[in-house]
Design the sequence.
């Protein structure tokens, strides 16, 4: 497994990053100071990657990069930054500095993908391609229909959904099924280095303006996918809006975003006129905990891919493993499911994976709804959600934090039949 050296003063973020990397098949080494990092750099094998906070207690990521060069080490350094506007970011990126940046607020969304760009591909357990993973749920079928409808138009589209649900794959499918498929496609990360710039004093236009305009020229007639647009800085929002309003580029924009975007529009931190220009139509992707019937299909697909990569017989999940997977809230959604299933496959030598082989990482951010929270207005809905997630009333009672006897009484109160449906 590739080693990743994490250098960060925040203990909680070191723990978070380590958990995400372990589940993706990496071997993280976490330290909090530059001096400790120097000791570890000397031990790193070829193919390793360094993830370093832009500002450390006893130095900086830039100083670590310069030290590494002086000592003859060439490990790529990814800088963790608090925001994309600070002078520290520009300093760490210039003159052969950091190869990339990850915004601290987007660690859970960007870290693994960014590390994957610079680690040796052959040592990564598995990388999913841009195809949609086939599955059986009604919600997935509806998404397929929505892709077809949107693809026949030239409307800009925002794909809403939690992190890890394959929003970029949906965006790519819209492009592939559209009339623009013979024209260029470019994918940008809103919180990444391609959208970082500074003001040019010799020009009326900023560096970021020129850069974004260049992207539009590069994909003229084609499609621009902007991932996680809720991470766009206000300055970048203004630049993007100006180009769309004044220059009317012949480019279709497909964006991805999480639910925070709607809150940002409401509180004014995301420009509403840009939002409506980008959201001429939209697709909403339900979370994995809302479509648990897809878990077995996705896991089976992943195990098939893993078997092909390792040239070994395909492993299977038994009933206990599937039940354990369905009971988990999946804050990281399909991305977390992939990491969990492949980690189990890697460490299980048998053909069958059981519940005992499944390991869930507590370091994953918990953005799942809490079904144990008693609210009379949502009680009925939560009971049905819990049953659909668990597959049994005993499992539903566990998710709801009540006894089976209490759940029976609640079902009677809300006229919910044994199949989890509302009786007339």
Sequence:
């Amino acid at each position: 497994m590739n080693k990743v050296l994490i250098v960060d003063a925040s203990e909680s973020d070191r723990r978070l990053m380590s958990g995400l990397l372990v589940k993706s098949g990496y071997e993280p080494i976490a330290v909090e100071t530059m001096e400790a990092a120097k000791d570890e750099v000397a031990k790193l094998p070829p193919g390793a990657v360094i993830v370093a906070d832009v500002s450390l207690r006893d130095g900086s990521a830039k100083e670590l990069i310069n030290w590494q060069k002086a000592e003859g080490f060439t490990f790529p350094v990814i800088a963790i930054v608090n925001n994309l506007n600070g002078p520290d970011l520009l300093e760490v990126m210039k003159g052969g500095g950091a190869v990339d940046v990850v915004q601290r607020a987007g660690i859970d969304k960007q870290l693994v993908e960014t590390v994957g760009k610079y680690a040796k591909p052959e040592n990564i357990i598995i990388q999913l391609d841009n195809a949609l993973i086939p599955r059986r749920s009604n919600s997935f079928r509806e998404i397929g229909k929505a892709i077809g409808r949107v693809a026949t138009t030239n409307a800009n589209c925002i794909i809403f959904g939690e992190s890890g649900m394959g929003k970029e794959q949906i965006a790519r499918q819209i492009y592939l099924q559209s009339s623009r498929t013979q024209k260029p496609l470019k994918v940008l990360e809103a919180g990444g280095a391609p959208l970082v710039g500074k003001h040019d004093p010799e020009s009326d236009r900023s560096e970021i303006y020129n850069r974004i305009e260049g992207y539009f020229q590069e994909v003229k007639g084609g499609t621009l996918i902007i991932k996680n647009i809720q991470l766009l800085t206000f300055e970048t929002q203004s630049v993007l809006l100006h180009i769309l309003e004044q220059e009317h580029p012949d480019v279709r924009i497909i964006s991805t975003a999480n639910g925070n975007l709607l809150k940002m529009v409401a509180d004014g931190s995301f420009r509403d006129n840009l939002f409506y220009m980008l959201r001429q139509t939209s697709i909403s992707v339900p979370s994995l905990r809302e479509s648990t019937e897809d878990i077995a299909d996705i896991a089976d697909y992943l195990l098939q891919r893993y078997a092909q990569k390792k040239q070994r017989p395909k492993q299977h999940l038994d009933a206990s493993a599937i039940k354990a997977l369905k009971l988990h809230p999946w804050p990281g959604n399909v991305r977390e499911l992939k990491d969990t299933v492949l980690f189990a496959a890697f460490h299980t030598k048998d053909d069958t994976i059981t519940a005992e082989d499944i390991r869930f990482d507590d370091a994953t951010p918990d953005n799942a709804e809490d079904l144990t929270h008693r609210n009379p207005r949502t009680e009925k809905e939560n009971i049905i959600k819990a049953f659909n997630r668990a597959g049994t009333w005993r499992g539903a009672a566990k998710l709801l934090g009540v006894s089976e006897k209490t759940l029976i009484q609640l079902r009677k109160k809300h006229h919910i039949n044994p199949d989890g449906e509302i009786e007339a």
